[in-house]
Amino acid sequence: MNSKYISLYGDIIAKIEEGTFPVNAKLPSESSFMSEYGISRDTVRKALNLLEQNGYIHKIKGKGSFVLDINKFNFPVAGLISFKEMAEKLNLHSKTIIHTLELEPPGSNMVKHLDLTNDKEIWKVFRIRQINGKKIILDKDYFNSELVPKLTKEICEDSIYRYIEGELGLQIGFSNKEITVEPCSEEDEQLLDMEDYDMVAVVRSTVHLMDGSLFQYSESRHRPDKFKFTDFARRTW
Q: Does the pTM of the predicted model rise above 0.85?
């Protein structure tokens, strides 16, 4: 087994983490790595490909490889994207842990948030998102069971949105979102790797189908050092 590319991969990660290769910096050329480490171009490219797959660098054809911010990931505020889609897009090493999956009567808050009557039932789904070995997101989702009649552990571990659109044939349309920064709760401390952080970024959303039906209320709680929320705005006249 050729372990030379693993050695180069590890060395570059170490230099990124210690700041020798800062965020947005261009990495040395393939030829430079070949000369410094006494390795082939193919070995260098294997190491760079692995770095890109794991979210450390971004390769631009004809320009080189550039260092990404390893401490933050972009979560588009205006868009509707599932965690699974985001993780695949950013090539993150991620894992979803199902903490709660229950069908239950709605409390007064969920009656209000999902515009329900007290005789309806809701799916309560709490999922812990682990990225690069750290539990840093707690997603608390509530679904109208009339619109989403069945959920399983397998569906929740994969992608509920993929199931809703692919299996149920429903079309997710739009959402309203609110972002706040709040003190972390006992639940956050128990379920997430908060380390020394005592605040969380919280994104609360109500999500509608294309026909306007309200099917989901969610509260996504993020460790603040790992995420930045992005949006696109255009000035109108």
A: no
